[in-house]
Amino acid sequence: MCLSKSEVVLLTKQWRKDDFDWLYNIGKEIYTVVFEMCPRVKSFFPYVLQCDRENKEWQESHEFRRQALRFVQVLSHALDHFENAKYKASDTELRDLLRGIGFKHRAFSKIGFRPTHWQIFVVAAVKALMKDAESLDVDDAAKVIRKTAWEKLTSYVVSCMEEGYYSDSTERLDR
């Protein structure tokens, strides 16, 4: 994956890695878009279904908050990796982390999860992050660059996770 220096700068200026509320709200928005795009994905999150049955706000459940933050932590880790230029030498550390996450998702295949569901997350993440960036970009060219950069980053994350999901189970991915 190749993010240019200017793309990394653009994304890191938007990403508020030390703002817990902002991170949670981005995660919440991503999952909201995912569930709107593909309501079936809710079935992978029993606490969301339970909240729906009980007419409670799933966005405020402890389990959802934890999941939303896990998701944005992965994006944050990937962005930090590219911001710190670690990738110039090797992206093994990040790749192994993401492959490990993908491998762990194999357990969810029993309830219907498939790696193709991650493509919904790519679209949802880009949509949520572009909505967040509306006040940052003053012209259409900047919007296109930002959107392309988020697509590259999220697609890279998913690609590595897919590698882990489909990897030989004898490989050591959970370092």
Automatic annotation (TrEMBL):
Keyword terms of this UniProt record: Heme, Iron, Metal-binding, Oxygen transport, Transport
Superkingdom, taxonomy of origin: Eukaryota
PROSITE patterns, sorted: GLOBIN
GO MF term set: heme binding; oxygen binding; oxygen carrier activity
UniProt cross-references to Pfam families, sorted A to Z: Globin
Annotated ranges, domain Globin: 2-166
Family statement: Belongs to the globin family.
PANTHER family: GLOBIN FAMILY PROFILE DOMAIN-CONTAINING PROTEIN (PTHR47768:SF1), GLOBIN RELATED-RELATED (PTHR47768)
Protein name: GLOBIN domain-containing protein
